[in-house]
Amino acid sequence: MAPKQTSEKKNNVSFEGVEIPDDLVHNQAVYTHPDPLLRRIRLENPKGQPIHDIKSYFAGKKIIVFYFGSSDEDNTFKSSHKNLTELTIKHGQDLALIYVSGDTKESDMRQSLQQKPWLRMTFHDGSDFAPMSKTPAPAAVSELLRGEDFVSAAEYEDGYVLPREGIDDPIEYSYVRPLSRAALIAHFNALRSPTISIYHLPSHKMINRYARPEEFQKPRLGRSLELWKQGRTTGYTTSDIYSAFKVPMVMGILALIYHFFIHFFGSEYSIPNLIAYFFNEPISSSLTPTGSGPHLTSVLAASSIPAGDVVREAVKSLPTMSTTLAAL
Length: 328
Prior knowledge:
alpha+beta, disordered N terminus, six-stranded mixed β-sheet, about 325 residues, single chain, 11 helices, two-stranded antiparallel sheet
């Protein structure tokens, strides 16, 4: 009879033990590791072969990049797939990338992983991706890797207790039930596909749950990698803030210039008055000149250029102005 060991918790109730599958009785290396998360997931190499010794495979690695994806994911990160692949090849001594599939068909997962040297969580874990309002049918033991009893998403949502982040697993050498893909997705709330999360192995902490595509692009990757290796989050840089607010900033500056122009040269140069003049409509009495500069009517009267041509030329210049703003 296979030996039993303590102690898994569910709904804060301590059970007497978890039976070790026959295939793992003499193969503790599959689940022996000080990291409480890594020892609870079952991994395969890029060829789809199970990893039997996680401590040896992850020796020296500091970062795990979790890619929560599926065959129907949006295109947010697809442009970064090449960068992610180069990252795993060039920095394989420091990190590993693990693909966590949200697909219900193994063929879809394999299609997503074609020509990608990424690790993957095993597909054969009985993941329950069905709506929570329905009770999914349990997977047959023959469909589960090594016949293990994987923790389902329904169990996790029902209160299955996982070890705290940031500490070594106190039962490193004891067998514990592994997490299914669905349970891990629920644990990290990675409900959007794709989601990329950065896990720091030495500190046993998720340091970035929702990494951005920009962090994997070459101009930023070196900095991101160094911060992740130190267990630090990348956060937002000055260039990020500028990229997000450059258009509002430019528009604000233009509005300020327009305000001072009207103040010093008169309200007849205001946009409403220009439109009214172009269409030969009477100017509102509330828009009388307030500045000390020459009035629009005086300027146009002294000019040989028709007012309509002035406005048309201004309209023609709008595309050029838009291009200039976009280049800023």
